[in-house]
Design brief:
The complex is a heterodimer of chains A (about 525) and B (about 260).
Chain A: E1 15-18, E2 43-48, E3 54-60, E4 71-74, E5 86-87, E6 89-96, H1 105-118, E7 122-125, E8 132-136, H2 137-141, H3 147-161, E9 167-173, H4 176-199, E10 208-212, E11 224-226, H5 239-248, E12 256-258, E13 262-264, E14 269-270, H6 271-280, E15 306-311, E16 316-321, H7 334-341, E17 350-353, E18 373-375, H8 378-384, H9 405-415, H10 418-421, H11 441-457, H12 478-481, H13 488-516
Parallel strand pairs in A: 2-5, 3-6, 4-9, 16-18
Antiparallel strand pairs in A: 1-4, 2-8, 6-9, 7-8, 10-11, 10-12, 13-14, 15-16, 15-17
Helix pairs in contact in A: 1-3, 11-13
Chain B: E1 8-13, H1 20-31, E2 37-42, H2 48-52, H3 62-72, H4 80-90, E3 93-94, E4 99-102, H5 113-127, E5 132-137, H6 142-145, E6 154-159, H7 163-178, E7 184-189, H8 194-206, E8 210-214, H9 219-227, H10 231-237, H11 242-259
Classes of the chains: A alpha+beta (about 525), B alpha/beta (about 260).
């Protein structure tokens, strides 16, 4: 925990102090001015922004340390700053109140943006260390001379709109050295601490998740559920983004989804989610397990950044990202798998996810998490390496280790991957797979014939669909051809009889179809 | 500021090579005297900034900002929309007479649903601050079909004397129906003599276009183009040339048709 205390005011810099409330403002203050834009030609000065350092920060302090409605300005005031130029700028608020704790700091800080914009002739953009303020000539002409006036107006708005703020004090600064030093030594550690706290939020810590139906325009039955441990599969929307959007527009594409009763804590199944999914998908999706791969998987709209595929031959899961053009060890490319999986369907054996889901502590935990992962392209593996448990980092193959199923089997055997002898899932210590069958002559013999097939099957590229694969619904024969009984020996038999012949049929069919067009 | 004045969104389109960008540039240079104007270069094949003589003022394109957002959104802390809005502001080139956005390169691979959804909302809010928005766009009306720009008050199609130019006008007309883009349709002829003007007028009347007039072929314009001089130079230096005089006539008609003044 970073200690919260008042920043030190330097002695060798010009400082202006104002105490008490101010009600007489030369410019209008109202939500009407929100969204007002100050063009370069109309601006008196620019504060912080892309060209100058700056930040905004709210700190919660004990009530006896906060001097209510006091403003300290460090550095030049508005009427002393060079007109038409950009200057450094910091806004620090100390707040106190019975209900205020550190968790509320970012929520209060977020409103600085709104309140600054309520002031006629003031434009505030962005947040934290990216803030960007412009003061308009119109405001200065109307008599706005001091940044203290702006601070007072914002403080009054804070107290009016957030009545739990009992006391508020501000430090504004335009002195470059002070702004830079305080940003580095005081603000950044607090921002970093906040981010760490966000990362540690889990599904069980919240009462509601958020939905996303942005993709329903092309995947009409699709429902995306966004929880703290499962960001959207397009990678764009986190639980926090969902919450922010739902607050702004509760009827918009991100709606709150009450969790309801927890039905399967490991798979991540909730009664509220199921009810919501059923209603929103028109009954297509009845059950969703947020952290399961093989049972009631999350539906995939088609926007996913990465697709996971189950390989019965090794009883493991591979992942391939959108940018990887070659076929995975199962002989299929990202595009061809995406074509089978997209459109808002739940296709057992395939799962679309966002890259950030690899960070999740609950990453497919029902199916063994990282201990079930056997293959991913090198580029993707590098990107998420730090989230892979250390004992698994060398056991997950890339295209450099294995391009075909045979090579993959060899690799996994060599590194003694958990799937070979059976996966124990970390979440509850349960052994969930039996491992491969004992090496037998039968298998050795069979491997040869599998190889023969892959020689034919692998080079055949499925139609390339780079943009929106889900707009072209394709016959989904793929899923049926992947059985997953979990016992190794059974799987081996099924492959013998089914995969070989069916694989051929599918590939040829598609090829012909495409050519006719 | 404060009071909301109605904005007029004008799209200039047509087959490539018909001179639509020249027309758009002249429209921008004339209209920006009348109020706040946002020029939008929405045609990756044309070069509106060059025609306007401001290519040096262009620092960033909206396409670059979109890509940046698309690829770093995972790392953005706090509110993504606020962050994105500020980045979009950085892509607005604030010039002396008007503001200019260059849409830039088309999207890369991946899902842009979220990005475009935010962009739409931000642009809608942001366009409220102008009196005029002039969009130079290709014949596919891409940014209208994707609703990055959600409405237009009038669509001006520029055609030359080729059959293809008129065909494109027809196609744009039916595309507008498909997109449910409710806007007035105008037609401007270019490189046209009297006979060509007659044919264009007939064409326009039959298909529900307002015929705004024709611009002649002018060797002065061709010369300026080849020397890399801008339309702005032409307006300043050759106010009495055939082309500029004809444009002023078209502009008068345009004003009473589109702006009702």
């Amino acid at each position: 925990m970073v200690e919260r205390k008042k920043v030190e005011i330097p002695e060798d810099v010009k400082v202006k102090v104002s105490e008490g409330e101010e009600y007489d403002f030369p410019v209008d203050i109202s939500p009407m001015h929100e969204g007002e834009r100050i063009r370069k030609g109309d601006m008196y000065v620019e504060l912080a922004g892309p060209k100058q350092p700056g930040f905004e920060l709210v700190m919660a302090l004990p009530a006896d340390q906060v001097e209510d409605m006091k403003v300290t300005l460090v550095g030049k005031d508005l009427d002393e700053l060079e007109e038409g130029k950009a200057h450094p700028f910091a806004m620090i608020y100390y707040v106190a109140g019975e209900k205020i704790d550190n968790d509320l700091e970012p929520i209060i800080e977020r409103r600085n943006h709104d309140f600054q914009n309520y002031i006629e002739g003031v434009m505030h953009l962005n947040q934290r260390y990216d803030v960007w303020v412009r003061i308009g000539k119109n405001a200065v002409e109307k008599g706005l001379k001091s940044l203290i006036t702006i601070a007072k107006a914002v403080m009054l708005l804070f107290k009016n709109e957030m009545p739990f703020i009992e006391k508020i004090e501000a430090v504004y600064a335009t002195d470059r050295e002070f702004v830079e030093k305080t940003l580095k030594e005081v603000a950044m550690p607090i921002f970093e601490e906040r981010d760490a706290r966000v990362e540690s939020l889990h599904d069980e810590d919240v009462d509601e998740f958020y939905s996303c139906t942005l993709c329903q325009s092309f995947a009409p039955a699709d429902v995306c559920i966004i929880s703290p441990d499962r960001p959207s599969l397009c990678g764009a929307i986190t639980w926090f983004d969902g919450r922010a959007a739902a607050r702004v527009d509760p009827e918009g594409p991100n709606k709150p989804v009450p969790k309801g009763e927890i039905l399967d804590p490991i798979g991540g199944e909730y009664s509220g989610v199921n009810e919501f999914a059923k209603a929103e998908s028109g009954g297509v999706t009845e059950r969703i397990k947020l952290h399961s791969f093989l049972e009631c998987p999350h539906p995939s709209c088609g926007c996913f950044e990465v697709i996971g595929f189950y390989m019965p031959e090794v009883d493991g899961i591979g992942w391939v990202h959108r940018g990887f053009p070659e076929p995975a060890p199962n002989g299929l490319t990202f595009s061809s798998m995406a074509g089978q999986t997209g459109g808002g369907k739940q296709v057992v054996g395939f799962l679309g996810i966002g890259i950030s889901y690899f960070r999740s502590k609950k990453f497919i935990q029902a199916d063994g998490g990282w201990y079930r992962v056997v293959w991913m392209p090198k580029e993707l593996k590098q990107k998420v390496l730090q989230y892979i448990p250390e004992d698994m980092r060398d056991k997950i193959a890339t295209e450099e280790d294995a391009k075909t199923m045979d090579e993959l089997r060899e690799f996994l055997k060599r590194v003694d991957h958990p799937v070979v002898k059976g996966v124990v899932r970390p979440v509850d210590g349960k052994k969930i797979t039996e491992g491969w069958a004992e090496e037998s002559e039968e298998e050795e013999a069979e491997e040869e014939s599998i190889e023969g097939v892959e020689g034919e099957g692998a080079p055949v590229q499925m139609p390339q669909m780079t943009q929106m694969p889900m707009q072209m619904p394709m016959p989904t024969q793929m899923p049926q051809m992947l059985p997953f009984t979990q016992a190794g020996p059974t799987i081996k038999l099924v492959i013998k009889n089914a995969t070989i012949s069916i694989d051929k049929i599918i590939v040829k069919k598609k090829e012909n179809k495409k050519e006719k067009k | 500021m404060g009071e909301v004045s109605p904005i007029t969104v004008i799209a200039v389109t047509g087959k490539g090579g018909t001179g639509k960008t020249v027309f758009a540039a002249m429209l921008i240079l004339r209209l920006c005297r009348k109020g706040y104007l946002l020029a939008v270069d929405a045609d990756p094949d044309s070069n509106l900034p060059e025609a306007l003589g401001v290519e040096e003022g262009v620092e960033k394109t909206l396409g670059e900002v979109k890509e940046l957002f698309q690829h770093t959104r995972d790392e953005i802390r706090g509110d993504k929309e606020i962050w994105f809005e500020a980045k979009i502001f950085e892509a607005i080139n604030e010039l002396d007479e008007f503001d200019l956005i260059v849409m830039g390169r088309p999207e890369g691979e991946g899902c842009y649903c979220y990005t475009n959804n935010l962009l739409r909302g931000i642009l809608r809010k942001f366009m409220q601050h102008y009196d005029y928005v002039v969009v130079d766009c290709e014949a596919g009306l891409e940014h209208f079909s994707r609703k990055t720009i959600d409405r237009a008050d009038c669509v001006v199609v520029v055609t030359d004397t080729s059959r293809k130019g008129l065909k494109t006008a027809e196609r744009i007309s039916s595309l507008m129906c498909e997109l449910n883009l409710k806007a007035k349709k105008g037609l401007v002829g270019n490189k046209a003599d009297e006979r060509a003007e007659e044919i264009m007028r007939e064409f326009a009347e039959e298909r529900g276009f307002k015929f705004l007039g024709a611009l002649p072929y002018d060797e002065k314009l061709a010369e300026y183009d080849m020397l890399g001089k801008s339309v702005k130079d032409l307006l300043l230096e050759q106010p009495d040339s055939k082309f500029v005089r004809a444009f002023e006539e078209v502009f008068e008609k345009f004003k009473s048709w589109c702006l009702c003044v």
